[in-house]
What we know:
Layout: H1 9-59, H2 65-143
Amino acid sequence: MAPFTFRLETLWKLRVADRQQRREELAEALEAETLLQTRKEEMGSELKELRKRRAVVSQAGEIDVDALTQSHRYELITQAQIQLLDQQAAQLAVEKQRRRQALVEAEREVKTLEKLLEKQYAEYVFEEQKREQKELDEIAGRRVPRG
């Protein structure tokens, strides 16, 4: 009995490796998204804390104008950084979708080859069974006493 060989095994292995690469790329994009979101939340918390401190300082008797000015500048810078993070998040969303689509395509290519492999293996098993049955029939035919 000859062993089963899949003619497209090398291509199948390449497609599986490509699919794994696409998974890793998507995971990287998801991780980047998480990092961006975490940083944005941290900056939002900083802004809230800054505004609380400024409100407390503004209500006290003497007002330090330089401290308020610095606080306001820091708030503007932080808001600009949050806007930049929002822009990066939008770009990342597009990239994440592109990577997700690439993964879907890679999955489809692997599944197509796997279906072909299954079909060829089923044909191989069927042909081997036919061959074995033919051999058994020939052996049985030789043992039958004649006449």
